[in-house]
Amino acid sequence: SHTYDEIISQPDALKQTLQMVKEQRFHEKDPDLTVFSGCGTSYYLAVSAARFFQEVTGKPALAVPASEVILHPEQVFAKGLKYQLVIISRSGTTSEAVAACKTIAGRKEIGVMAVTCHAGSALARLAAESIVLDHIKEKSVVMTQSFTNMLYALQLYSAKTSQNDRIWNELTRLPEQMDQVIGQLPQIRELAENLQYRRFIFLGSGVLTGIAREATLKLKEMTQTECESYSTLEFRHGPISIVDDRTAVILFTSEKTKELDAPLMEEIRSFGGHAVAVGHCADQVSADTALVIETDLSGSCQAILLLPHFQMLAYCRAVKLGLNPDQPRNLNQVVKI
Length: 337
Ligand code: F1P
Known about the structure:
Blueprint: H1 2-8, H2 10-23, E1 33-38, H3 41-57, E2 61-65, H4 66-71, H5 73-76, E3 83-89, H6 95-103, E4 110-116, H7 122-126, E5 129-132, H8 145-161, H9 165-171, H10 174-184, H11 189-193, E6 199-204, H12 208-223, E7 226-231, E8 247-252, H13 258-270, E9 274-279, E10 289-292, H14 308-320
Parallel strand pairs: 1-2, 1-3, 3-4, 4-5, 6-7, 6-8, 8-9, 9-10
Helix pairs in contact: 1-14, 2-8, 2-10, 3-8, 3-12, 8-9, 12-14
The structure holds 1-O-phosphono-beta-D-fructopyranose.
C-alpha cells in the first residue's frame, strides 16, 4: 500500500526537508501578522504552524481555512496593516488555495509565500516566494508524510528566520527521533483493530491542536469512522456526554498540560470510555493505554512525533475493515470546485 510506505519512510523524507530548508535563503519581511492557510489536512497543518511560529518568533500569527480568505477577506485582513500569507497545499492546485492568492492579488501590503510539494504548480507560480518539497511524491490520496514534512519545513523556517538557534538545533534532531517512533508503530495495532470502539475523539491544545485535528481527519478519510476533535479541556463542556464503552478518547499530552490532562482522563474512564494518551509523559496522565514517545526535544518541537501512531491507526483499521486506505470513498488527491 502506498499509504503504508509513505508513513514508514517519514524519517528519510524529514532528513531531506531539513537539508532543503538549511540551504534555502528567505526574503526579509516584517509583517504585523502572519496568516497561515490551506484546506483540509493543509489547514490543520496551518493551525499547528501558526502556533509554533508565534511561540518561536514572538511575532503574531493565526490560521484560517483558505475558503475564509476567499469568502471573507475583510474579516481576515484589516486595512492599514501589513500581512504575510503562508498558503499551504500538497498539490499546489486546490481550488480555494489558488483562489485565496488571486483574491489578494494586487494588495501590496499582503506578501505571499507558498508551501507545496509540487514545483511549477499554480500556487508556486502565484506566490512571491515558495518552499517546494519536491522530494515528497505521495501516491496515496491521503496526506501523511506531506503533512509532517510541510509542518517540519515551517518549524525550521520559523527558527531560521527568527535566528532562534536553540530551536533550530533541537529541530535538526527530529528525523532521527522519528526513526524511533516508526519502530514503535506496531503498538497501535491492537487499538486500531478493536472494532468494539465505534467512536474516536482526539484532544490536543496549543501546537497539538492541529495534530489532533489531523489524526481525526486521517481516521475519517480512511475508515469513515465517526470521530471528532476538540481543544482538550473544551471536551468537558458538553461533548463529554457522548462518552460510553464504545468510545476511545485519544489525548495528545505534554509536560506543560499533563496536570490538567490527568483528571480529564480519569473522568473519561469513569464514564466507561477507553482513555489513550500519547506523548513524552503519556504514562503520567492516568490513561488506560499510554503511547510513550521517547524524545528529548522540548515542548512544541515534539509535536510531529505524536502523529504517526494515528496515521498508522487509520491505516490498520481500514485494512481490518476491508477498505482501501489509499483511496477513500468520495475523495480525490486534489479537490476542485
Ligand atoms: C488538501 C486535501 C486534503 C485531503 C485529501 C485531498 O489538498 O483536500 O486535505 O486530505 O488528501 O486534498 P492540498 O491543497 O494540500 O493539495
